Amino acid sequence: MKIAVLKETFPGELRVALAPESVASLTAQKLQVLVERSAGSGAGFADSQYESSGAVLVSRDEAFAADLLLQVRTYGT
């Protein structure tokens, strides 16, 4: 199963749905974690932190191909 972390687009939202230290526990369960490039920058996490935790950095389009998308906040209707 592929899980993707999206970069937040809601105005002013700086949090990220998954911190790098949580990636290792997911990959240990044989889940693939995809992280949109710069997804954690607003929360102070560098792409390299995600990579060293076992995540794969991807583009937004590649992230949307995952089975599960993680996001803190989205636009309402």
Question: What value does the average pLDDT take?
Answer: 95
Structural class: alpha/beta
Rg over C-alpha atoms, rounded to the nearest angstrom: 12 Å
The quaternary organization reads as single chain
Alpha carbon gap, first and last residue: 29 Å
Total E-strand runs: 4
Strand content: 15-25%
Number of helices: 3
**Helix fraction by DSSP (H/I, runs of at least 4):** 10-25%
Envelope shape: globular
Question: What are the low-pLDDT stretches, counting only 5+ consecutive residues below 50?
Answer: none
Describe the structure.
The chain is 23% helix and 19% strand. The chain is an alpha/beta fold. A 4-stranded parallel beta sheet has the order 3-2-1-4. Strand 2, helix 2 (47-52) and strand 3 form a beta-alpha-beta unit. The chain starts with a strand and ends in a 7-residue tail after the last strand. The model has no long low-confidence stretch (mean pLDDT 95).
Set down the secondary structure blueprint.
Elements: E1 2-5, H1 20-27, E2 32-36, H2 47-52, E3 56-58, H3 60-63, E4 68-70
Parallel strand pairs: 1-2, 1-4, 2-3
Quick gist of this model?
With 77 residues, the chain is α/β, with parallel strands linked by helices. It contains 3 helices and 4 strands. The mean pLDDT is 95.
Jot down its keywords.
globular, alpha/beta, about 25% helix, 4 strands, about 80 residues, four-stranded parallel β-sheet, about 20% strand
